[in-house]
Amino acid sequence: MLINKTNxxxxxxxxxxxxxxxxxxxxxxxxxxxxxxxxANKQAKLILFLFASKSIDYxxxxxxxxxxxxxxxxxxxxxxxxxxxxxxxxxxxxxxFKDKNIIPLNYQVGFNKYKVYEKLLKIESMxxxxxxxxxxxxxxxxxxxxxxHNTVYLKGCEGGRGKQVIRLKQLGEERYEYSRFNNExxxxxxxxxxxxxxxxxxxxxxxxxxxxQAIDLLTIDNKxxxxxxxxxxxxxxxxxxxxxxxxxxxKNHPITTHANSYPFKAFFQNTxxxxxxxxxELESRLQKLLFTAYKSIEKAYGPTAEIGxxxxxxxxxxxxxxECNSCSKKVSFYNTTERDxxxxxxxxxxxxxxxxxxxSPVKNKRPKTLVYQPHQSYLxxxxxxxxxxx
Length: 390
Description:
By secondary structure, this protein is α+β, with helices and mostly antiparallel strands. It has helices at about 20-25, 35-45, 115-120, 125, 140-150, 195-205, 265-270, 275-300, 330-335, 340-360, 380-385; strands spanning about 1-5, 10-15, 45-50, 55, 60-70, 75-80, 85-90, 105, 135, 150-155, 165-170, 175-180, 185-190, 210-215, 220, 225-235, 240-250, 260-265, 305-315, 320-325, 370.
């Protein structure tokens, strides 16, 4: 059975990991993110389905996808033609999915932290927000940075969740202390610069990393504080802040990943006792930074539906751009935001998808998208079927 769709209803393929895709279908669960996305689509009314890298038939340009039947409360399997738009949700594997006629809604790969820094450094309006960063090429680079800044961060250029981050402090002549977090906190003291370099190289295992000046971040009870903002486009292509969360790290930890999170306004007014006027002033400065950063990143990498942006506030009140996330996991956002606002954030993304689709000349050139009902006589290749095998 073939099902035609009208040309004025765009199809949106949501690209997820093979593991996530298989889990949804086999266990018939509706977890967070997927649930709010589907709820938002009740209003947006796109043809929406999920797929993974192993479910793509590149030769025939078709996809074995799943969609959620809201009447039956079940994930249902279908074969779709390539979608009009693609949205990457979470880690989707090393293999990219590209087609010149498919509109990418967000960035399909992660950022390289140092390349982002290099690009933003060229934009005058962003320079005031950037902590000094250099790429590590030799031990001389680290020695020079420690001469300028007593404390620095070493960060893997790619990857996230704080697994490739070291906070390094010089205690005295040839004496150092560094901390890192990987499921548990490690605090190590080292005597001798050469020994320090050896341990750092062992940690990064030939992976590229940068050296960044440490920001004297605001703290509470020896716990560092930073901000995670979810910034996105709405159905008119305008920038909006979906939510800002305050992340409070564990005591003496070098990062706020895996930290506790709190609503932005409530934390600053109730915990830090900011007056309404002082909070509004901070909020205004923060929005300026967020919008400047978003536009600067788009200038360097092209348009996108959303970016997760990490911001630091130092003890003197200065705001700093820490890093950006091409595909935010939204953990802090979910922990600090009411469900209606989360659904609204996904509705913004879906409405932005329609906005992009209606602007695109591609929509008038594409044939009607056919959705194929799987049938026993319909041959599927082993790669497509493999995602459903136990």
